[in-house]
Design goal:
Length: about 375
């Protein structure tokens, strides 16, 4: 049976071990060692990766009490190898995992909700709780969790006897009866867990609840701890610096500045619509009597403006008045009117000539075309 070094000391990042078996499996090599600090996937924490000599370990799994290092190359049985974990990754996982214990313990004691789901991803940790929480409640939990970090409390692992176990009150997702490993963070949490954790809460560095949402009758909370929380802070700082400079607003007042700009933009849009309406009325009033067709292009018209302009043109021309809005790139919308031509009969020819679609009444048709402005103008000449 492999000696589990990660239970002796969660901070062993390199060690010497002997290969006791090596078999090919699913295109990889399943390597067993006489001792290992590689933690096999469990308790919501992924299996460790690293090196056995020069052979890469892609994953670590446990089955039937044996720990298998999933390696990309074979190793000779009996060989002694120097092994090393991908320590940065493992340490981040322990920071996240221990942070999760503190937060789950606090939510359990303050609100009575259970942690019913835990996912420790590469970029983010999610925890699902059995009841709903507000942002204010999570802010309070986050503050208390960070106080636990500053207190630098030693984390204790216990293997209680089957006699003493039922007397203990601890969090657990499973009904466990034997070989139960409990992880105690005094004052904050007591939880059945098989994974390695940091030795003292101070190693977590920082706990940030970055987001939350309703989920299956409770909430899903996103957490970042330690180095990952620090890196997230850096990214957010870069973003807020750029936004602050762009808005000429202090960093902590950017949300208000954005609200002000959104309101100014909405007012400006409303004003632009009104001015465009005034401009179209003036254009409509200035149209001269014409013997033939009128073809007009105006940007940014809504349907009402197009119809008003078309009606004004139709009244003063003997052919058709065609109003277009849009661009050569995105295509044009049209409204075409006439007092003298049956447009329902003409619609097919117009749409065919200008790669368009649309229709309407004998007096007015509307639709869209993808032909460029030059072709449209040529058509109505
Ligand atoms: Zn744990």
């Amino acid at each position: 049976m492999t000696e589990k070094l990660y239970y002796k000391d969660s901070h062993i990042s390199s060690f010497e071990a002997k290969v006791i078996s090596c078999v090919e499996k699913d295109g990889c090599w399943s390597v067993e060692l006489d001792r290992t600090a590689f933690f096999p996937e469990g308790g919501g924490q992924p299996g460790d990766t690293g090196l056995l000599g020069s052979v890469r370990v892609l994953d670590t799994q446990e089955a039937d009490g044996h720990i298998f290092h999933v390696a990309d190359s074979p190793l000779e049985v009996g060989l002694s190898v120097t092994c090393s974990l991908d320590w940065d990754l493992r340490f981040r996982r322990m920071q996240h995992h221990t942070g999760e214990h503190i937060v789950s313990g606090l939510i359990h004691s303050l609100c009575g909700f259970d942690n019913v789901g835990f996912h420790l991803g590469e970029d983010d940790v999610t925890m699902d709780f059995s009841g709903e929480l507000t942002r204010d409640e999570l802010d309070r939990v986050e503050l208390l969790a960070n106080e636990a970090v500053y207190k630098d409390i030693p984390i204790v692992t216990l293997f209680p006897s089957p006699v003493s176990l039922p007397r203990l009150s601890y969090r657990s997702k499973l009904e466990l009866t034997e070989n139960v490993r409990l992880v105690r963070i005094p004052g904050y949490d007591l939880c059945a867990c098989c994974a390695p954790h940091v030795k003292r809460t101070g190693e977590i560095g920082m706990i940030k609840l970055t987001d939350f949402m309703r989920h299956r009758g409770g909430v899903r909370v996103h957490l970042l701890a330690g180095l990952s929380a620090f890196e997230d802070c850096r990214v957010k700082y870069k973003n807020i610096s750029a936004i602050s400079a762009a808005l000429s607003a202090p960093q902590n007042d950017t949300a208000n500045a954005v609200d002000r700009i959104k309101k100014e933009l909405a007012d400006a849009k409303q004003e632009a619509v009104k001015l465009r309406g005034d401009l179209i009325s003036l254009k409509a009033a200035s149209l001269k009597e014409t013997d033939g067709n009128i073809c007009l292009f105006e940007p940014g018209l809504d349907t009402r403006m197009m119809r008003d302009l078309c009606n004004a043109g139709t009244a003063v021309c003997s052919g058709v008045c065609a109003v277009f809005t849009g661009s050569d790139i995105g295509g044009y919308k049209y409204i075409i009117g006439s007092r003298t031509t049956d447009l329902r009969e003409q619609a097919r020819a117009i749409n065919e000539a200008l790669s368009g679609r649309g229709g309407g009444s004998p007096e007015m048709i509307q639709g869209s075309v993808s032909a460029p402005r030059s072709e449209i103008e040529q058509f109505f000449k």
